[in-house]
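S1.2 Input.
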Amino acid sequence: MQNLQMFLTQLWKRRVVQFGALYLGAAWLLIQVVVLIEDTMKLPDWMDQITLVFLAVGFPLALILAWAQETKAPMQAIADPKASFARQEKNASIAVLPFRSLSSNAEHSFLAQGLAEDISSALSQLPQLFVVAHSSARNFEGKTQDIRTVGETLGAAYVVEGSIRRIENQLRISVNLCNTWTAEQIWSKRYDHEIEDFFAVQDDIIADVTGTLTKEVLHTEFRRVKIEHPNSLKAYEYWCRGSEGLDHLDGKNASEQVNWFRKAVELDPNYAHGHAFLAMGLFFNVAYLYSRDPLKDLYEAEKHAEIAMKLDPKDPVVLGLAASLANLKGDLQDAEEFARKAVEKSQSWSMGHATLGYALSHGPDTSEGIDELIRAIEHEPDGAGRPLWSLNLGEAYLLAGEAEKAETVIKDAIDSGLHARWGAWVFLALAKESLGKHEHADQAFATARSHAPAWTLDACFDLLNPSKTSPGYENLKDLMSTLWNRCETASNEATA
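S1.3 Output.
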């Protein structure tokens, strides 16, 4: 019964029902026309019969074509960020490259990185702009490449680049705005400020860049842009150091990155982004199994997320983080509410799309959730969240009954950094089991067991708990039981 419900859902989603109804209506009209012409022109009686036969043969072919038109490569939208920009025709796409530090002082290097990230974050709050995630733009740090190549790789029509140099007590910041299609430098400016006035430069640059791209943005939307400034440059430097490594976490640097954020909030307890990124770092450490005490880290993450929400409840970064933690606790309704606010504030904030996608994909209708998860990956194809969001997308495809797509994106998640996460292997096993690849499913399930700290059927079912309201939940639960029983039988036979 559950499989029939999923099949009927797929028929409607792929517009097979709608297309079939349209075909029948058009066929009836054509037959009426043929009969009328046959009577008028005294044609043989078999004309309408032949027409009916051709229409009957064509009906199943039309339904097959309607079904097939939805079966495109599942990773195309992920692997080709340009696909997302093609849907953003009315928006200008822009990327902010890492700024270069021309000083020997290491502190200025972090200020350069932080300045570029803040500019990117502020621009993403403007609905007229489609901003490439800064974590993707960071791949060009320290590289000299043709601006056309940069634009093509990132899918950006415009690129902002710049540098910072300290001259005694002055900071000289140079910024360029380039058109990646023509490689033309369409705007450039040099800013000279006292080093104590560093944060004032950010607002000037945002105003100038947006005003150059589209004049009306400056007048109607710039007042919405908000950059939070800490009370000291030192706290900002600590935040920059932590943020730099957050996109490339591994077991060696995970604790170090979190500690930079801790130092930032210790120095400035009212720094909302400091608390938000500290919570985010702790969350990623738990998600990627780098944490030595997951329960303690999750408790601390929730505490700092609550502080960030009290300090700045309208900030998209803070809202996205609150949505992530709500998803983790299974509060999908709260997660959806926070995530929708985050996306509304910043349409280019990938974490907002990811958390909204997770919440929606585990509800009654997974299709909207799938779209949001794809948007998150398109916005940030190389960021720290990419592996986790690919896994979430694979899980959503499983719930929607699209096992082939699920298998592809879950493999990508494992290859991108989740190879030690037992839940990822369980979902890969479910995808392979759905496709009838039983031997490969058993191998993936056995790998999951080797990584699991506590291997029980209930622990496996817990992975599916957030999706209890999804139409595909019971089917996945049955597949899980089948895999478990087969795995246990093989294990008992091996030890007998």
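S1.4 Remarks. The mean pLDDT is 77.
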